[in-house]
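Q: Okay, next protein. This is Epoxide hydrolase 4 from Seriola lalandi dorsalis. I've checked the sequence twice, so it should be correct. Can you predict the 3D structure?
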Amino acid sequence: MARVLHNLLLFLIRLAQKIRVLGYWSLIYGYCALCTTVALLKLWWSIILRPTTTFQWVIRETPPACLNDTSLGTHCYVRIKESGLRFHYVAAGERGKPLMLFLHGFPEFWFSWRYQLREFKSEFRVVAIDMRGYGESDLPLSAESYRFEYLVTDVKDIVEYLGYNRCCLVGHDWGGTIAWLFAIHYPEMVTKLIVLNCPHPSVFTDYALRHPSQLLKSSHFFFFQLPRFPELMLSINDFKALKALFTSRSTGIGRKGRWLTAEDLEAYLYALSQPGALTGALNYYRNVFSSLPLSQNHVRSPVLLLWGERDTFLEQEMAEACRLYIRNHFRLNIISGASHWLQQDQPDIVNTLIWTFLKEGEGRKGYRN
């Protein structure tokens, strides 16, 4: 009798797990279908309003002058033997000084760290990389090439190629996700972790599944699962959606800070208009659901989390919840009026807070800005 009950219990547990998995993927594919329907309606409306220009966009052939600004650093390349990929990065500051490595988000590239490259090169060897699939780095077309383990290994390989065994790691958005993961898997290589507007991956997963409002704000995660169609929607009307992402009142840079200049915007359009560039950027999203939940969660490095109060895409409640996974000093700063693009629209405040974190002792409580 006891064995029958035991077997029945195991059966019910496995059944519950299967139902949970089925529900998880049903939610994902159902939401994908909904987002696709909305996108098709937008495309149809654009064709009605602008029948001659909807399917026109321009590949930028010449980089704007700001991308060759020598005050930002030197353009360098490295080919990683293990992966065979070539990475582009911009570096400044004296070789041999402590390494500060910057990881950008979507849909950005090394240029998003221009204010920090100038600021921290006095005391660090600052390096802002184009992550795989972005900018001048190699662009694997297979979505499988963007699994979390490959992205984390890229960071490890680049740190070691630069001649270091540890670094101060700074990440924003998707770069923040990879920074969290790198600190989890290689704690001995991270002296301090600085993340901008990106929750710990486990916090994001748990929170989004329990809060429909965040699920709605993350609808692009589901839409981007589709092949080819998201690339089309981001390209039509000469990349109108990308321009709006950076400049609109609801999502753009500079609502209470520095505005993105016309030349800055052209820098982004130059990088993202190149053949295959959007596919590389979107492939980060096309592996995310199969990579969660995480098997390891805890971060053992000191952590500074900077959060723009007016982030359109991420709810602020997730920021404080990150404390649950940190086994060291944790400092959280919520920056009033700042957007998702924190390091670009509030660079002075961001730089000051980073300096404070780098120079302060352990164990002090964070504060709200």
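A: Here is a summary of the prediction. Residues 65-210+286-360 form a domain with the Rossmann fold fold (CATH 3.40.50.1820). The beta strands are 74-79, 86-92, 99-103, 125-129, 167-172, 190-196, 303-308, 330-335.
Q: Noted. On to the next one.
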